[in-house]
Amino acid sequence: MTAVETAREGADRETAEPTRPFAPFEWMIAGRYLRSRRRETFISVIAGFSFAGIMLGVATLIIVMAVMNGFRSELLGKILGINGHMLIQPIDQPLTDYDPVAKRLEGVPEVISAIPFVEGQALVSGPAGNLGALVRGLKESDLRRIPLVANNLRAGTLDGFDAGQGVAIGSRMAQQLGITLGDNVTIISPRGSVTPMGVTPRVKAYPVTAIFEIGMSEYDATFLFMPLPESQAYFNMDGITTGIELYVVDPDNVGTMLAAVEEAAGRPAFVTDWRQRNVTFFSALEVERNVMFIILTLIVLVAALNIISGLIMLVKDKGHDIAILRTMGATRGSIMRIFLITGASIGCVGTLAGFFLGLIVCLNIESIRQFVSWLTSTQLFDPTLYFLSKLPAEIDSGETVTVLLMALALSLLATLYPAWRAARLDPVEALRYE
Questions:
Q1: Which of 284, 293, 290 is nearest to 387 (CA)?
Q2: Is the separation of the CB atoms in 126 and 219 below 8 Å?
Q3: At 372, which helix (H) or strand (E)?
Q4: Whether the Cβ atoms of residue 69 and residue 290 lie closer than 8 Å to each other
C-alpha cells in the first residue's frame, strides 16, 4: 500500500474510540513544537518575539494604568485634602454668622468638619525674590484638622498659632523666597487702606512660625496660612469670612448631600463641590487614561499577530507530521487542539510573565525612577511640571484583571485561524510526493 493510499484510508476512517479532548499526547506534541530544532530556528525566533511582545505589552499596560491611577488618587487626595469637598459661600449678605452655621453643618450626617476661612490673593516677598500667594486665614483648631498641613510640618509648630501673628508657609515658597524658620515674610495686598489719594496697598511683615510640605509642588509654593483674626484684619473683613469648607466621609457621595447641606446652612448660600470646581482637570485625566489604554493595547495586538504568523509558518513546516498523525488516527479536532495549545502557551506564559514584571515595577517604581535619574544625571520627574514630588503607582485589581483577560483573549483568538488551517490540511495532498 502506497503512502497516498494509507493517508486516504486514515483520513476516511473514524476511530472507534476517539481520544478525549486535550489528551496527554496532544500536550506532548505541542510541547515538542515549542522546542526548536536547528532547521526551525526562524519559527522559534518568531515565537520568542511574540512572547516578548505580549509580556512587555501586558507589563506596560499594568504599569501605565497604575501610574495613571496613582496620579489621580494622589492629586485627588492633595487637592481635596487642602481645599475641602464642598464649599459654602454667602449670597446677598456677608457671612458674619460663620460659627453657628459651621456647627449646624457639622451636624449633617457624613460631614467630618466644617471650617470657616478667609481667603485672598497677595504678593509675598523675601530676600530671594517675590511670589504670588494664596493667603488663607484659619483658626488653629481648624488648621490642625487638615492632616495634609498639620501632619507634614518640616519645621516649626502650630502651637499658639491663634495667639501670635506668625504664618505657616509651604516648603517650596520658603525655598524660592530664601526664608527659613523665624525669618519675616512680607505680604503685599492691593486691597489696602482707602486714602484721599486713593487705595494704597497694604504691606505687612510676619514671622514664619511653621513650614509645611504637602508633596504637591503647586500648593507648597502657593499657600500661606495665617490666624483667622489676623487675616480678617489684613483683608478688611472684620467679623466676616469668605466661606466655609466641608470635609465629608465619602467625596464621591457629595451629590446626595447637597439638599441636606443647603438646609443645614439656614441662610441663602451658594454650594459647590469638588467635582464642579475641578471638572476640567479630572476630565482631562480620565480622557488621557482611556486613550493610553487603547494605544498600549495595540502592543498586545501586534504580539498576537506575531503568534498568527509564527503558527502559520509552523503549520506549513509541519504539514508532513500532520498528515502522518491523521493516518495514525488523529482527528481534525486533535490536530486543531495541538496548535491551539502551542499558540495559547505562548500567550498565557507571556501574559503571566508580563503580570509579574508589571507588578514588580509598580511596587518599586519610585526606586527605579531615582536609579535611572542617578544613572543618567537627569531629573525624570520634575515636581514643578507634574505637581507631585514623587512618582505614584496604584494597582487597581479590576483593571489588572481586565488587562490579563484581554491579553489572554487576544492570544487565544490569534491561534484559531492557524489551528483551523492545520486541521483542514489534506493528508493525501501532504503525502502525495512522499
A1: 284
A2: no
A3: helix 365-376
A4: no
In total, the chain counts a number of residues equal to 434
Spatial CA neighbour of 167 closest among 175, 176, 158: 158
Task: Determine contact, residues 124/175, Cβ cutoff 8 Å.
Answer: no
Give the residue carrying C-alpha cell 511582545. Answer: 53
CA nearest 354: which of 289, 297, 286, 283? 297
Quote the CA–CA distance of 59 and 297 in Å, as a whole number: 11
d(CA 62, CA 139): 44
Successive 10-residue mean pLDDT values, the chain, 434 residues: 46 49 72 63 69 86 87 78 87 86 90 91 89 91 88 88 86 91 89 66 89 84 91 88 90 85 86 83 79 83 80 76 75 80 84 91 85 78 62 84 88 84 71 57
The pTM of the full predicted model, rounded to 2 decimals, is: 0.69
Cα–Cα distance measured from residue 318 to residue 43, given in angstroms and rounded to the nearest whole number: 11
- CA 434 – CA 426 distance, rounded (Å): 14
Cβ(224)–Cβ(168) below 8 Å: yes
